[in-house]
Design brief:
Layout: H1 2-14, E1 25-29, E2 38-41, E3 46-49, E4 56-61, E5 66-71, E6 80-87, E7 92-99, E8 104-111, E9 117-122, E10 133-138, E11 144-148, E12 153-157, E13 163-167, E14 181-187, E15 191-196, E16 201-206, E17 212-214, E18 216-217, E19 226-229, E20 235-238, E21 242-247, E22 254-262, E23 268-273, E24 279-283, H2 286-290, E25 298-304, H3 307-346
Parallel strand pairs: 18-22
Antiparallel strand pairs: 1-25, 2-3, 3-4, 4-5, 6-7, 7-8, 8-9, 10-11, 11-12, 12-13, 14-15, 15-16, 16-17, 19-20, 20-21, 21-22, 23-24, 24-25
Length: about 350
């Protein structure tokens, strides 16, 4: 009897609701940082955060402790770090560098151990019109992929820093309002998932030949900007108003938005996946920072959760409780039968 009660108590303990309390919020301070991009570094156990106002990248710990990682005076004045991705296999940090006037776009690469610049690859000379580099993703071989929101292009930058045009697919410009390729992530199956802010579309782009196709979704990802992917394959797409939770069962020929989480309007600028597969949004107040005459030193990294997934977890909680109770009843029935059989033998 005692053994069975212990089993049931253990089931109840492990089935206790995971999504209890308020989501984790990390408040940090840095004068006029206005960060537009960030990434999680699991090896160092901290966030890597860029800046709209400074040629600087900082680290923010889970407890909100802030320190400077690098300050690159070799970059043009008034440059911003608008996209960040980590290359853990090669211990590198890839950062999209952009300046509005005069226009300048480049990909900078830094050693994650020393934060020494490994290369700075300009992207403006790849197209006749001005480039507006937005975000970057990296594959296992060290090749990086940079989106261009001005020309609906995707650039490929090799591990050695050599740049080329990967894709200018006609699918990106299928409508008059097309434009604004933005967030990008790499899938280990050999393709990119790319958001398009102006249309709310999601594209699948193959890294071998640059061919692209639109992912058929059950709804548009309105004003989609940042994108990240969890270890379970769920894709997170962030706008300034909400985070979309998207999944696919056919390698992203089609996808389904199964939940949306509202954000503080106008403050969010990026999304990433941190420790324990938790989803975080960066509140960088970028729109305010772009005005140029504002000042702010308080920013935040806030965990967001899916209500739909929370309900699914609660269902499993009750399933586990039910299984435990059924096991207990079965054990009681078996014991009753055993006692009755023993009584019959003694009689």
């Amino acid at each position: 009897m005692l053994k069975q009660l212990i089993v049931i108590h253990l089931l109840l303990f492990f089935a206790a609701p995971i999504r209890c309390g308020n989501p984790h919020a990390i408040n940090f301070r840095w004068p006029n940082l206005y960060p537009q991009s960030f990434a999680w570094d699991p090896k160092s156990d901290h966030f890597v955060v860029g800046s709209l106002r400074h040629r600087q990248i900082i680290s923010v710990s889970d407890a909100g402790v802030v320190s400077s990682l690098l300050s690159d005076a070799s970059l043009p004045a008034d440059s911003s770090f608008v996209g960040i991705s980590l290359d853990p296999r090669h211990r590198r940090l890839l950062a999209v560098v952009r300046r509005l006037s005069p226009p300048f776009s480049a990909l900078a690469c830094y050693d994650l151990r020393t934060f020494r610049q490994l290369f700075l690859t300009p992207l403006d000379n790849l197209l006749p019109s001005a480039v507006a580099a937005s975000d970057v993703a990296v594959d296992y071989s060290g090749d990086a992929y940079v989106t261009d929101s001005a020309n609906d292009a995707i650039f490929k930058v090799s591990e050695q820093g050599e740049a080329s045009i990967l894709s200018r697919s006609k699918h990106f410009k299928s409508e008059a309002a097309a434009g604004g390729l933005n967030g990008v992530v790499y899938d280990t199956k050999g393709y990119l998932l790319v958001t398009q802010s102006s249309t709310g579309k999601l594209f699948k782009v193959f890294t071998d030949d640059g061919s692209a196709r639109r992912v058929i979704l059950n709804k548009e990802l309105t004003a989609a900007e940042g994108i990240a992917v969890r270890r379970d394959g769920v894709v997170l797409v962030a706008s300034k108003r909400k985070v979309y939770f998207v999944k696919s069962d056919d390698s992203w020929s089609q996808g389904a938005v199964f939940d949306e989480t509202a954000l503080e309007e106008g403050h969010a600028s990026a999304v990433t996946v941190g420790a324990d597969n938790r989803v975080y949004v960066l509140y960088g107040n970028v729109d305010e920072g772009m005005m140029g005459n504002s000042e702010r030193e308080e920013f935040a990294i806030v965990q967001v959760e899916s209500e739909a997934e929370g309900k699914e977890e609660n269902v499993w909680i009750f399933v586990l409780i039910g299984l435990g109770f059924a096991y207990f009843l079965f054990w009681r029935f078996q014991m009753r039968q055993l006692v009755q059989n023993m009584d019959k033998k003694h009689a």
